[in-house]
Design goal:
Radius of gyration: 18 Å
Order of helices and strands: HEEHEEHEEHEEH
Number of domains: 2
Number of strands: 8
Strand content: 15-25%
Strand order of the largest sheet: 1-6
């Protein structure tokens, strides 16, 4: 996916195939968008939580397959979804290797940014996604890998635009 026009085309094709037509709305910065990482131990704990590995593995439910993670392939960042614990463990090992290589200075120079991405869906489409699961009303959004990656591309593009805006 090279341009946003290409991303839009991918999204249109995936909607025709059955993906739920969510649209990127905006980024949301909260009170705690920037969190300082003060030590290597804190970095490893936060990464374990985000990747749902180690002591946090029991928190990995079915929805974790929708998360998008960055992995390094050489010097190139690759964004992908993971479904299995060993895939998330591989990302964790890569980050540990990079931290060892770059030796980050934890004296106020390492931060974790958490930004929420908000999406919208029309009322008509939302009604199509309504389900009853174990006696409770809920919603299920069916999306292909390509569609989730396209939504992620929108989030990443919006974040970069804010960065360059100033």
């Amino acid at each position: 996916m090279e341009s946003m026009r290409d991303v839009d085309r991918v999204m249109e094709r995936e909607i025709k195939k059955g993906s739920t037509p969510l649209q990127f709305e905006q980024l949301g910065f909260g009170d705690y968008s920037y969190n300082e990482i003060t030590s290597q131990e804190k970095l490893l704990q936060v990464l374990s939580y985000l990747l749902r590995i180690g002591e946090y593995e029991p928190f990995a439910g079915k929805t974790i397959g929708n998360n998008v993670y960055m992995d390094m392939r050489g010097k190139k960042a690759v964004f992908k979804r993971t479904r299995l614990t060993y895939e998330r463990n591989n990302i964790f090992a890569t980050i540990k290797r990079l931290a060892k290589k770059y030796k980050p200075d934890y004296e106020g120079k390492v931060y974790l940014e958490t930004v929420r991405c908000f999406f919208t869906i029309s009322a008509e489409e939302l009604e199509k996604c309504r389900y009853n699961y174990k006696g409770k009303n809920t919603y299920a959004f069916v999306m292909s890998d390509r569609y989730i990656m396209a939504l992620y591309t929108y989030c990443l593009s919006a974040r970069k635009a804010l960065l360059f805006k100033g």
